[in-house]
Amino acid sequence: MIAQAIPKKPTHLTISSRIHERLRQGTLTQQQIDDFQEFLKDVERKLLHHRIIRNNAYTKWFQKGTATDVELRHFIQQFSVFSNQFLVAALLKVINSPTLQQSRASREILLNELGVIYRHTEQISNAIVLTEETKDKEGDPELVSTECTVDGGICRFQAAHFEWLLGVAKGLGLDFADIGKRKHGSPKTLHFCDELIRLYGSDDRQIAEGASFAVEHWAAAGFWQELEDGFIRIKQMRHPQLRLAFFTWHNRVEAQHAAHTLEELEEVYFNPNFDRAKFFEGGWQILEAIAVFWDGLYSDLLQ
Fold first, then answer.
1. Distance set, CA 290 to CA 23, 201, 218, 254, 266 (Å)
2. Which of 103, 108, 204, 210 could make a disulfide contact with 283, Cβ separation 3.0–4.6 Å?
3. Whole-angstrom Cα distance, residue 67 to residue 135?
4. Is 171 helix (H, G, I), strand (E, B) or coil?
5. What is the pLDDT of residues 64-80, one digit of tens each?
6. Whole-angstrom Cα distance, residue 86 to residue 216?
7. pLDDT single digits (tens) 259-283
8. In CATH terms, is domain 69-301 a member of 3.20.20.120?
9. Where do the domains of the chain lie?
10. Would you call 65 helix, strand, or coil by DSSP?
11. 54 CA to centre of own chain
């Protein structure tokens, strides 16, 4: 019998030091900051309390490490479709970015997905001649940085996130031809992918902003940790060959992405054209689509 998941404690959004500095400089009033604080409370209530953030039954089950090999292969196949289709949504987000700054922020995510490695500033300015062996290791997710910038970074084919996921798939008997294509996706997986493209990649700035904020806070809410825990148990018990760095790397990086979306929200909120209703529409609809994806995987367990 599959146990019920225990809801997580909700994330609390707070006024950042950036906002306090703008108050000190006189570019924001105390009333504007108070209104923003009330808006953040609405964000918590309407988005961050969504059941798929607080109570993901599938990942709670997965965390126990009891998935059979058939269930593991099904999960990897469905997750690989989402992972590959996310590239389409991410490209649209770049194309539809309303400002150069937001375009660059979106390109950071897309290019890193495709294999451009994050670099610290000192690494960019102090280039080192690398051996072929060292170059190969640069694509290892256990070694790849989770922060700074792709600007000045190096592209490594083996650093593409899909290749990391392929490494997991191969440990379960799947190959490149078995994962990542739309033909491999269930109807519920494809619904999620299509909603990502429609909402996260929307040319309506407000819709896209809400969807982006919700996606990153969903990703930072703990499901990566639950997947990592489950895979580690499986690796210890029966699959010592599994390469799990795809999951451990993403688990480390997502909190940083969520922090960036809050910073981005601070910028757009104080724009006179900010539309709260559309922001919440984009956020809620993408969370509903995420729920369809995970609920689909959970219902597959019960069949």
1. 37, 15, 9, 16, 25
2. 210
3. 35
4. coil
5. 999 999 999 999 999 99
6. 13
7. 677 788 888 899 889 999 999 999 9
8. no
9. 13-49, 69-301
10. coil
11. 16
